[in-house]
Write a structure and sequence with these properties.
The complex is a heterodimer of chains A (122) and B (512). With 122 residues, chain A is mainly α. Chain A has four helices and no strands. Chain A is elongated and about 60 Å long. In chain B, 57% of the residues are buried. Chain A: Residues 99-122 are annotated as: Disordered.
């Protein structure tokens, strides 16, 4: 179970970081989402992985740690809010700059102005 | 247990919620209520400062849970100093904003108050995960504030800021998880007890967690490899927002001062002084980078934004050396530089509003209106920021220079700080003389009126630097006591023994 869990966290984080470094806002948002999934799983694992154990002291020989679940819940809620905000912001970016490049650059060079045409003609 | 500790969080929270529901109320009513909230917050911060100045720790345990099991708020001198610093700054920025900058967005005052609440939580909390939550609260409010006023250039700068901070939050969570998986606690006092006991392979996990925390705080504080987002974002924000953001980088510095001497201090065994070897050279390089940026700035707001980075470098260098005198000097300079930089942002916006199309660009333009008033304010701000006598920036830098013991570090710090200060002076002289003196013929047809609120709040915030000079003795005594308290870990650890008052439930007896 540990190996599978570690591989899942690793795969999520790797693809998250790769997408985060892309130049379009959509992959960046996907990357951040995947990264936060990886982080949530990681936080969850910080209380040790166990099955069939209760988070109550004294009911069994060993108990599981309930705190990481509370931390993950908080992180998920915050992550949702931030992702929603980021989606709206990048839509605004798309509307303002007419493309979804993270730097707001124009995709193709604007047509040469009259002045430039005259200069290049000479 | 005193309930005053929760006041700086509850007041802006309730005031902010009120603003959310009053989006369609008349703007004068909203302004009055919002400023009243900020004034109340300042009063509560001053009360907490008076409480904290006796040198003891005060603990507020949520839900009466005995630390380390519940979340606690901890008040000490450092937290109280930061609270008052923020509340004063927040009040003047708020008055400035109510002079017209708050129009165009119904939720401006709500966001502003939530931002103040997030800052206050960050200063008061005694729990590592709660610190993360505080960062998120202040960040999400700051995203909204940064967008205030619109414009496509602001969207792009805002997008970078948001993505960068979300990545920072992910790193914060990873480091919290690493530290929790080894120590089993997130209470800062308990961590200070547990971390020195860590041995074997676990040592590396805590070490990695601690270093990643430093990266996160470095991102908030804008230390060199992580500082290039700042000038763009701050220079494009509305003036009162940019001025409030002057304290945001100080939150990162506060977190470093709070966590590293406590959890990775001299008592931390193998993890003692983790990361501090890295911090000193990085601080000096940050300072140099800030100076280069300030020299190359082509408008006033960008110049001031680079000044933020200069002050971050200046603050972190003595902190990284880890002496009490250094921390005391840094705290003195922190108060001075935060207010000065904020005042300079406000002055730049006023200058821009009086120059028509030229705005705050450093170019020759027709003579501006209210030139005498604005140029005097700019002069005071620039002298304080560059660290010339007789204003407070000079005393702050002098204390920092005095605090270093002789050796290689002293040579580096003196060299970089003094040359940097000289070059900053050149940057300000150049900007000031072009903007205020090199006028071309002609005049603006329709001057924008400058209302009283804007002028008075900017004037007072600028003149606070003189107040610091007048009160330099008491303030430096206070920062010295604060530094002593920060480096005395035992006092902070003792909050674990705080007795929690459990009220008797009258119903229990009846049922039995």
């Amino acid at each position: 179970m540990e190996l599978l869990f570690a591989l899942a966290i690793g795969a999520l984080t790797t693809s998250g970081v790769y997408l985060l470094l892309r130049a379009r806002t959509f992959p960046v948002i996907m990357g951040l989402t995947l990264l936060s999934y990886g982080v949530n799983l990681f936080l969850f694992a910080s209380g040790r992985l166990a099955t069939g154990q209760q988070p109550v002291i004294g009911t069994a020989a060993s108990y599981s740690d309930p705190l990481p679940q509370a931390l993950v819940l908080t992180a998920i809620v915050i992550g949702f809010a931030m992702t929603a905000f980021l989606v709206v912001l990048s839509l605004r970016n798309l509307a303002d700059n007419e493309n979804d490049h993270v730097d707001g650059r124009r995709e193709t060079a604007p047509p040469p102005s009259k002045l430039e045409q005259e200069v290049s003609g000479k | 247990m005193t309930h005053w500790l929760i006041a700086p969080i509850l007041i802006p929270l309730l005031g902010g919620i009120l603003q959310v529901f009053m989006g369609y109320a008349p703007i004068s009513l909203r302004r009055t209520l919002a400023i009243a909230t900020t004034v109340l917050m300042l009063v509560s911060a001053v009360v907490l400062l008076a409480l904290a100045s006796d040198g003891s720790y005060r603990v507020y345990a949520f839900g009466n849970w005995q630390p380390p099991f519940g979340i606690v708020l901890v008040l000490d001198r450092l937290a109280a100093l930061m609270l008052v610093l923020t509340a004063v700054l927040g009040l003047f920025c708020h008055i400035y904003a109510s002079g017209g900058a708050d129009e165009g967005n119904r939720q401006f005052h709500g966001l502003f108050l939530f931002q103040l609440m997030g800052l206050n939580i960050a200063f008061l909390t005694g729990d590592l995960f709660n610190l993360f939550v505080a960062f998120e609260v202040l960040l999400i409010a700051s995203y909204g504030l940064l967008m205030h006023g619109g414009g496509s250039s602001r969207t792009v700068a805002g997008l970078h800021y948001v993505v960068l901070n979300l990545a920072g939050s992910a790193l914060f969570l990873i480091s919290v998880g690493m530290i929790y998986s080894v120590t089993g606690t997130l209470n800062m006092a308990d961590l200070a007890v547990k971390i020195p006991q860590v041995t074997g392979n676990n040592l590396n996990l805590v070490k990695a967690g601690g270093m990643m925390l430093l990266v996160v705080f470095g991102l908030k504080a804008a230390i060199l490899p992580l500082c290039f987002w700042l000038p763009k974002a701050y220079a494009r924000a509305t003036a009162p927002v940019a001025a409030l953001f002057a304290v945001m980088t100080k939150v990162g510095i506060y977190a470093i001062v709070r966590i590293y001497p406590l959890m990775f201090g001299d008592d931390a065994g193998e993890l003692a002084n983790l990361g501090m070897d890295w911090l000193f050279p990085l601080a000096l390089v940050t300072l140099s980078m800030g100076v280069i940026g300030a020299l190359g700035a082509d408008n006033l707001k960008t110049l001031v934004a680079w000044q933020v980075i200069i002050s971050v470098g200046t603050l972190l260098a003595p902190i990284a050396l880890g002496s009490e005198a250094g921390l005391s000097a840094a705290l003195f300079y922190l108060v001075s530089t935060t207010w000065t930089v904020a005042a300079l942002f406000l002055v730049s916006e006023l200058v821009a509003s009086q120059r028509g199309a030229a705005g705050d660009s450093i170019v020759t333009a027709p003579k501006m209106h209210h030139r005498t008033f604005l140029s005097v304010l700019f002069l005071i701000g620039a002298v304080a920021a560059a660290g010339l006598p007789p204003l407070s920036g000079f005393f702050g830098k002098l204390l920092i220079l005095q605090s270093v013991e002789s050796g290689a570090e002293m040579a580096w710090l003196w060299g970089v700080l003094l040359i940097g200060g000289f070059l900053t002076l050149i940057a300000y002289s150049r900007a000031g003389s072009i903007v205020f003196w090199w006028n071309i013929d002609g005049h603006l047809e329709t001057p924008e009126p400058m209302n009283n609120r804007v002028a008075i709040s900017t004037g007072i915030l600028t003149c606070l630097t003189m107040l610091i000079v007048v009160l330099a003795g008491p303030l430096s005594d206070f920062t010295r006591a604060t530094a002593e308290q920060v480096y005395d870990n035992q006092g902070y650890i003792n909050i674990l023994q705080t007795p929690v008052h459990i009220p008797q439930n009258p119903l229990v007896g009846e049922i039995n």
